[in-house]
Amino acid sequence: MAEPATQHTKWFGYPVPFWTANAIEMFERCAFYGMYIVITLYLTDRVGFTDVQTGWIAGIFASLLYLAPTFSGALADKMGFRAALTMAFGLLTVGYGLMGAMPTKAIAIVSLALIMVGGSFVKPIISGTVAKSSDDAGRARAFAIFYVVVNIGGFVGKTIAYPLRINLGVEYICYYSAAMALIAMILAGLVYRDIDKEGTGKTLAEAGRGLLKVLSNFRFMAIIVIVAGFWIIQAQLYSSIPKYTTRIISPDAAPEWMANVNPGTIVLFQLLITSLSKKLRAVTSIGVGLFIIPWAAVVIALHPDASLAWTWEWVGRDGELKTFALHHATVVMCLGIMVIAFGEMFLSPRFLEYASKQAPPGEVGLYMGYSHLTTFIAKIFAFVLSGYLLNAFCPDPKTLTAEEMVTAYDHAHYLWYVFAGIGMLGFLALIVFRLITGYLDRGKEAEGGA
Prior knowledge:
It is built from 20 helices and four strands. By secondary structure, the protein is mainly α.
């Protein structure tokens, strides 16, 4: 039986299970993002899937990670958080370990399935623990701490992934992720204690009925699909950029470190952007984010000469000439990722606020539970489309002859124009959505006043 939160010793205002859950989350994020940033490289370069096959496999995996928690969360409530969490990290440890030890096509798919199932339990359990560990007054601070921990874990995971891939091989990232998951499993089994969960959770049948109800709501699903246009481009940090950079720059390029420009920018500027946008209506702030995001893709596309590099020279203390060269594509890639971050800072904090207003009265909680559908849609579309675009404009060098390699990547940046178009469509769709819903609302008001 779960213990009430009040029975737990408190550290810095929160019970011990809160801090244990955050520690577990950090190890899980280190594991996940270490693997996730190289998932497309692993599936193509190490396992042998084509770009298109990789797009479908990674897309299904990433999208189900955001849909499955609706149902695994219900199972976790029945099992108890501690038991479910221990089981989840057991699956993650085996999944990551198998990816490294047996990089075959069949085992890769089985491994990703294990990681997807295990990972789908972690998010609702940890976020549920954070919520139950705090009262109304301290909940905002509790989730702020949780958000910082998530970003620390993601940053560390991606940072460590690069030297492991370059010096040892991509399979060693899988071993690293397995080790992080194993540590989390030990913490879950030996240290974690359940927080009182009274009044939370749904049955699987209730979760299914709730999903069907949400899918039938035009307004809610419309904003979900529109905002998915933003996350399709943001998802290219993991779907297109790793292969794109290692192909047009060199196999030793560091997409893992480039991706960290995103959270780094958010940490530096989120408070400023929040201050600047606090007087904007939620839909206006979302619109700003949707307007910014296509320009990120345009910036990344600005590399007409893949061999161009900026070079700095200076004389060192020993009197010798020092040189530092930075590839042009690296510069525009980092700038583009920064632009993505600025769009995210405008859109992400206000999306849930606006989406909640599309829910019928009295059903906001139900609808917010399914707000992750925007990420579900974005992930599968982003990875699948990326596979086809990479195959068309930035193909796998193993599939090219020496003669084809000479000009193979001359138009590699064209794939970013496609994503720029998707981003612009999302912005225009939001304008149309606002016009239609505004017209319908004015009609209802006129009928009500008649």
